[in-house]
Amino acid sequence: MKLLSTLSAILILFQSLNISLGELSRLDEFLEHASFHKEQYGDNLFVFISKHYGELKAEHEKNHQEEQGDHEKLPFQQQCCTHHAANAYVLFSSAQDKQKVDTEPEKGEAFYYLQTDYSGFRSGIFQPPKKA
């Protein structure tokens, strides 16, 4: 049971960090390229990570175009963008709450906030407790 719990926790961690088995299979490319950098440039692991994933990435890619093929093989290079549709379900509503709401964001905006004006949130049940 402990093994199953541990494996489930690791699976959830990998999924939340968007790490796939394909990325894990490319860790040997990471280690191989890191050893190349250590021999060629004398970089330690922190400098290597900074050059390929951090603030020195743009400068390193500009100065070392010949390594572009190796850089594409490194894990965690793909920028993944997932889109989730947001659905809202209202369990209780009154006639005054029913209004046509435009839920489409304006062009050019990536995020928007829709203020809910549902009267159920104004009732006492969803409010913090008051001092007695």
Report on the structure:
This protein has 132 residues and is mainly α. Helix 4 (45-53) packs across helix 5. The chain is built from six helices and no strands. It has a domain at 2-73. The two termini are 46 Å apart.
> Which spans have pLDDT < 50 for at least 5 consecutive residues?
none
What is the mean pLDDT?
A: 75
Cα-based radius of gyration, to the nearest Å: 25 Å
The portion of residues assigned to helices is 40-55%
> What structural category arises from helix and sheet content?
mainly alpha
Number of helices: 6
Main β-sheet, in a few words?
Answer: none
Order of helices and strands: HHHHHH
| First and last CA, distance | 46 Å
Report the strand count: 0
**Per the principal axes of the C-alpha atoms, what is the gross shape?**
elongated
Strand content: under 5%
Task: Summarize this structure briefly.
The chain is mostly helical and 132 residues long.
Short key terms for the protein model shown above:
mainly alpha; 132 residues; 6 helices
Question: What secondary-structure arrangement, pairings included, does this model have?
Answer:
Blueprint: H1 2-16, H2 21-25, H3 27-41, H4 45-53, H5 57-63, H6 68-73
Helix pairs in contact: 4-5
